[in-house]
Amino acid sequence: MTIKRNILLSSLTLLIITAGLILSSCGASSYLGSEDSSYDYVAEEGSATAPEYAMDDAYDSDGSTKRINGEVGQNSLRHVIRNGSMDIAVQDTRATMKEIKEMVNDAEGIVSNSYVYEVREGQYAGSMTLRIPEKQFDFFMEQLETYGKATNVQTGIDDVTMQYVDLESRLNNQLAQEARLVEILDMAESVEEVLEVEKELYRIRGEIESMTAQLNYLKDQVSYATINLNLREETIPTEVITPGAFDNFGKKIQQAFVRSVNFVLSAFSILILGIISMLPVLAMIGIIILIIWLLVKKVTRRKKNKEKEQIEVADKNNE
């Protein structure tokens, strides 16, 4: 039984190493073949020059694969992440953001972030992060410029072909190893052999889950372009007379009245709190003033009585 178990474990190790080497070799050869065809193109016999990249490159149905010269092939696949940003001066920030959201929804895109804030009274600004299908990126950038005065317009492309192909190749290798381990698991006869194979299978499946998550994230970034928008309402020149100053005039009066009442109530409450907090001090001062007043009153009374006695004595002497 020990000899048979050792033979099985040796076969397991040999099969895993062999499968990994073969699949890695195949993946690397396919990847190198793709890279050589993309970058070091050699003209076919009978052609004068090598074909150049067409200016009107197209995209496949999911927007993740770029076609060169209108043809899709193993040697022409490119995976790119597109992004852009723009500042727009608009007449009404909130209304414009609502229209942009509707346009994104119609294109089956996503508004991943939206924020509106008040710059000063009556003037608003906002920011948006749009995730739209990659094939509609150029169309969206052009349409957004029609909503107002666009400034700081930027676009960029991040080529992730190497990362994408490498991750996809390593994932395929791991899947192949998983399938091979499942076959070996069926051949195991003892508990130790089963545990050994399951331990390796658990590790492989953990790596598969991690690589799958990375690849799905990369596919999402490639399939959906990102556009960052900053919107701000145009300031009205002071030399221009506009009826806009009287918009919602009744509401502004109400708000001003409420603010005034709140200010008076706040000041009154502060005064009351100040008086209450000063009561012990005021009581002490009051007691001191009362004592001084009583002393002064007593001294004054004595002085008056003395003067009165002197007057009476003087009158008797005169008689």
Average pLDDT confidence is 76
Distance between the termini: 156 Å
Strand order of the largest sheet: 4-5-7-3-6
The biggest beta sheet, please? 5 strands, mixed
Q: Please state roughly what percent of the residues sit in beta strands, choosing from under 5%, 5-15%, 15-25%, 25-35%, 35-45% or over 45%.
A: 15-25%
The helix content, as a percent range, equals: 55-70%
Secondary structure: elements and pairs:
Blueprint lengths: L1 H38 L18 E2 L6 E2 L12 E11 L2 H14 L3 E11 L2 E11 L3 H8 L4 E11 L1 H27 L3 H33 E10 L15 H70 L1
Parallel strand pairs: 3-7
Antiparallel strand pairs: 1-2, 3-6, 4-5, 5-7
Helix pairs in contact: 1-4, 4-5
